Amino acid sequence: MVQLADPIMRLSKRKANQTNFIQKTAIAIAILLFASAFFAPLIVPFDPLDQSLLSRLRPPLGFERFAVGHWAGTDELGRDVLSRALHGMRLTLSLAFAGAVIGLLIGGTLGLIAGLRQGWAEDAIMSLVDMQIAIPFTLVALLILSLMGSSLTVLVMVLGIAGWEQYARIVRAEVRRLSALPFIEAAWTAGAGPIYIAWRHVLPNLISPLVVQFTLALSNIVILESTLSFLGLGVQPPQPSLGSMVGLGRDYMPTAPWIVLVPAALIMALTFSVQILGDWLRDRADVRLRDR
Amino acid sequence: MIPYLARVVVKSVVTLFAIFTVTFIATRLSGNPIDTFLGEGLTTEGREELIRYFQLDASLWQQYLAFLRGAMSGEFGLSFIDRRPVTQVVGDRLWASGQLLLASVGLTVLVAIPLGVLGAIYRKSWVGSAVMMIAFAGYAMPSFILSILMVLTFSYWLNWLPVVGNSTLLHFIMPTIAMSGVLVAALTRFTRNAMLDALGQDFIRTARAKGLRESRVVLRHGLGNAGVTVISVIGLQVAGLAAAGSVVVENIFSWPGIGQLLVNSALERDYPVLQFGVITVAIAVVVINAITDIAYAFADPRIRLAHS
């Protein structure tokens, strides 16, 4: 079988535990986005569902016909674009967190079993992983969402099983690497039981690779969720999500591009900053990368 | 060699089997297939008759066997909307998707391999950093955002390119670039890493020591050896990524391919078409993966000459 480990990618060649300007900016942006999503109901000036047919399709600040208060303009039903975008980001991030946690629980458990119990259990789990990698997940998501309906519960489950195989691979590889190390052997010799060793010696070593994978998964799930919502199969209107705002705003692009551009900019800011954050965490977590 | 090939074949067959099973379970989970597939406008007697005809009163296990038997003989049912066999509905779309796929893979190879090589050679200068920035951006940028931004700029604002359809060469530009974004990112990263590995080997030092020109060292000895990995990535990663990308890109640019068909049938709940479309794409990906694995085995003497 061709073995293709995910290649290690670094934005620059600085030493591992330095933080450069791009990374600092990205982390600041990520914190800002997370905070504004969390506090969205307190910050935003308007209800995201409130329609106002008198101020439809108003442009953002700085353009003619700007309506005071609607800093990022209004959409075709007079709803405030900024309020919708922040609420949408809140929903997108909540879904992404829930999905990433589900993926972590499924993948982590299966990876742990595969790493500790060699034999048929490992073979079965790893062939599941291979299958998940072989089948393009977007198609599975389309099938499930179309058959079971696009409720938020189904959506969270779909996002959860989207990335479990990465956790399983990482956990299995780490567990196998660790079990061969002298300190684990020493613990066995000292009379420690399997549960104690797993909890006390294996798990603490798994935390940093898992945190890194969690961050990267978060960004991937944001992309998947916005893509599905963009296609009309994710979050359903009138509830705003960043992806569906872009999808529904497409019809107004020639005359009112801000309806699309505001959520699109937020999605990009989110995926870029979270990816850089994950990259930064990986640099700090993994000493093996220092010379790459 | 032979055990390796056998493993590849067994794995592909198992994966295909799993795909069939998953689609069967998924369609049965959502309720009685008669009600979901044929839906409204059915009398009670008609419904009874159909249930008997399709043997839906049989056990789930017998239904599953019947489903597999139908799949083997190419019977996947009729489209809910077109009233044509789904094999025809999907078949009509193959060529458009194939064209877009070929164009995107071509563009990806032309862009990503030189970028990856440059990134590896100049990894300590700004060129290397720029290459990594491009790879990074392509990876973090969802393809629908890339498409939307291109449409806004080149169609609505500059009025240069057409948005809808696939009739002329101009129509290919934006969808091809949109599809290639993620692919370029993935392939650039793999090429760069494969080149870094190859250029760190002893035979590169030997090649330099015997006085070869640098271009020959890098291209013949470096890329020649990294090439095996790179080609396998094109097969393994690109097939899956392109399948996912085409769903989005074909939808945005109204490209009459399978990706657009899948989204439309998912939205219109045309389950037979959706089911067969997913199976078709999954089979394509699995087959491409298997071919890549086998080609890799022939290209790599360590596998080709291995004994069991």
TrEMBL record, chain A:
It comes from the Bacteria. One of its GO terms (cellular component) is plasma membrane. Residues 89-278 form the ABC transmembrane type-1 domain. Pfam families: BPD_transp_1. One of its GO terms (biological process) is transmembrane transport. It is a multi-pass membrane protein. Gene3D superfamilies: MetI-like. The chain crosses the membrane at residues 21-44, 91-116, 137-160, 180-199, 211-235, 255-278. Keywords: Cell membrane, Membrane, Transmembrane, Transmembrane helix, Transport. It is found in: Cell membrane. PANTHER family: OLIGOPEPTIDE TRANSPORT SYSTEM PERMEASE PROTEIN APPC, PEPTIDE ABC TRANSPORTER PERMEASE PROTEIN. Belongs to the binding-protein-dependent transport system permease family. This is Glutathione transport system permease protein GsiD.
From TrEMBL, chain B:
Keywords: Cell membrane, Membrane, Transmembrane, Transmembrane helix, Transport. It is a multi-pass membrane protein. Pfam families: BPD_transp_1. The chain crosses the membrane at residues 12-31, 100-122, 134-157, 169-187, 223-253, 273-299. It comes from the Bacteria. It is found in: Cell membrane. GO terms for biological process: transmembrane transport. InterPro entries: MetI-like, MetI-like_sf. One of its GO terms (cellular component) is plasma membrane. Residues 94-292 form the ABC transmembrane type-1 domain. Belongs to the binding-protein-dependent transport system permease family. This is Glutathione transport system permease protein GsiC. It comes from Pacificibacter marinus.
